[in-house]
Automatic annotation (TrEMBL), chain A:
Domain ATP synthase F1 complex delta/epsilon subunit N-terminal stretches: 18-90
Organism: Gigaspora rosea
Keywords: ATP synthesis, CF(1), Hydrogen ion transport, Ion transport, Membrane, Mitochondrion, Mitochondrion inner membrane, Transit peptide, Transport
Any Pfam family matching the protein: ATPD_C_fung
Secretion signal, residue range per the UniProt entry: none
Domain F1F0-ATP synthase subunit delta C-terminal: 105-145
Main location: mitochondrion
GO CC list: mitochondrial inner membrane; proton-transporting ATP synthase complex
Keyword Membrane part of the UniProt annotation: yes
Subcellular location: Mitochondrion inner membrane
Name of protein: ATP synthase subunit delta, mitochondrial
Matching InterPro entries: ATP_synth_F1_dsu/esu (IPR001469), ATP_synth_F1_dsu/esu_N (IPR020546), ATPD_C_fung (IPR048938), ATPsynth_dsu/esu_N (IPR036771)
Automatic annotation (TrEMBL), chain B:
Organism of this sequence: Gigaspora rosea
Family statement drawn from the similarity comment of this UniProt entry: Belongs to the eukaryotic ATPase epsilon family.
InterPro entries with a match to the protein in the record: ATP_synth_F1_esu_mt (IPR006721), ATP_synth_F1_esu_sf_mt (IPR036742)
GO BP field: proton motive force-driven mitochondrial ATP synthesis
Name of this chain's protein: Mitochondrial ATP synthase epsilon chain domain-containing protein
GO cellular component, one term: mitochondrial inner membrane
MF-aspect GO terms: proton-transporting ATP synthase activity, rotational mechanism
Domain of life: Eukaryota
Length: 150, 68
């Protein structure tokens, strides 16, 4: 290894777009599909990823992954958490445990589950139960705000 | 970076499990029924001796399964 440093080289001209792979343990949503931009909710903050992005690994919050396929098509998924790996060659790998299009969620179920989780978070019988409920409240509040801004 | 769940002694695996369950339970009926089949995963084992199956024991309790 030489001590010289280089700037990250740009992706070759043949791969001008961002290649997205978005996989769940039970399903492949995108497999090396060229897209324009992907917006993710990382634990370090919300970020938009375009081609030739600086390589990075980001932990995903329970939140929305927005895939801008082209100027006309944008798809929004709610993911329960996972990782996004931004590779040096303009490819992006997103791994999540669960991901669903926003229209698959039931606002009534979210409201009911949120009320239940909030109740357990404050008056659950054990500390463990309350901690679990606090995580659920966080997820459901994020889900609710995601649906609200659809 | 500090996370509330981590401070509460919840492991990352358990945290993702709780999040995934909360997401599944918020789905519309049709999708929820399919998704919930992925929820419960356990492991059972039995010792076979001279061609006979021994007692079948679930060993999921040690795997950090969340009991709700």
């Amino acid at each position: 290894m030489s001590a010289a440093r280089w700037y990250a080289t740009e992706a070759s001209a043949s791969t001008s777009g961002l290649r997205l792979s978005f996989v769940l343990p039970h399903q492949t949503i995108y497999k090396g599909v060229e897209v324009q931009q992907v917006n993710i909710a990382a634990t370090s903050g919300d970020m938009g990823i375009l081609a030739s992005h600086v390589p990075s690994i980001e932990q995903l919050r329970p939140g929305v992954v927005e895939v801008i396929e082209n100027a006309n098509t944008t798809k929004k998924f709610f993911v329960s958490g996972g990782f996004a790996i931004i590779n040096p060659n303009s490819s992006l790998d997103i791994n999540a445990v669960e991901a669903f299009p926003l229209e698959d969620f039931s606002p009534e179920a979210i409201r009911a589950n949120l009320a239940e989780a909030q109740r357990t978070a404050t008056s659950g019988s054990s500390e463990e139960e309350r901690n679990i409920a606090r995580v659920e409240v966080e997820v459901l509040e994020s889900l609710q705000s995601a649906l609200g801004s659809k | 970076m500090s996370f509330a769940w981590k401070a509460a002694g919840i492991s990352y695996l358990k945290y993702t499990q709780i999040c995934a369950r909360a997401v599944r339970n918020a789905l519309k009926e049709e999708q929820r029924l399919i998704a919930q089949r992925r929820d419960e995963q356990g492991l059972k084992f039995a010792k076979w001796e001279s061609g006979k199956q021994g007692e079948l024991k679930p060993i999921d309790s040690a795997m950090g399964n969340v009991s709700v």
